[in-house]
Amino acid sequence: MLMGEYNHVIDAKGRLIIPAKFRGQLGEKFVITRGLDGCLFGYPQEEWRVLEEKLSSLPLTKRDARAFVRFLYSAATECELDKQGRVNIPAVLRNHASLTKDCVIIGVSNRFEIWSADRWSSYSNDTSDNFDEIAEDLQIDF
């Protein structure tokens, strides 16, 4: 399970350190793609295969299904860590998530997300203000 929040800096070449606690769970290769809410999603290979199965079952005749699959796959890239634990984020993904310097990497169960620090701060503040309402709407028992 991927969890926690980590702050790192992306360098001018697009390299970003992946938290050490995530590296063992990601394996040799993993996938990073566009995510929702202006972030990037990262998946271990096994979780990516599970997602692929779900996506392949979407009806090709539905415009939204085609658009979503295109959006996700067109920027997906298979990644490997270098010896320093960094991954090279392609420009198309950096642009999607507005990654320029300060980044936040969060674990979200079966995936991790990469956010620009500013965007994460804004999202996190907005969500924390409504956390009780969100939980009530979802009817989650703790």
Protein described:
With 142 residues, this protein is α+β, with helices and mostly antiparallel strands. 41% of the residues lie in helices and 30% in strands. The chain is built from six helices and eight strands, in the order E-E-H-E-E-H-H-E-E-H-E-E-H-H. The strands form two sheets. A six-stranded antiparallel sheet has the order 1-7-8-4-3-5, with helices on both faces. The chain has a two-stranded antiparallel ribbon with strand order 2-6. The longest helix has 13 residues, at 117-129. The chain is globular. The two termini are 19 Å apart.
Topology:
Layout: E1 2-9, E2 15-17, H1 20-26, E3 29-34, E4 40-44, H2 45-56, H3 63-74, E5 77-80, E6 86-88, H4 91-96, E7 102-109, E8 111-116, H5 117-129, H6 131-138
Antiparallel strand pairs: 1-7, 2-6, 3-4, 3-5, 4-8, 7-8
**Main sheet strand line-up:** 1-7-8-4-3-5
Q: What class, by secondary structure content?
A: alpha+beta
Rounded mean pLDDT score? 95
Overall shape: globular
Residue ranges: pLDDT <50 for 5 or more in a row? none
Write a brief caption for the model.
This protein is of the alpha+beta class and about 140 residues long. Helix content is about 40%, strand content about 30%.
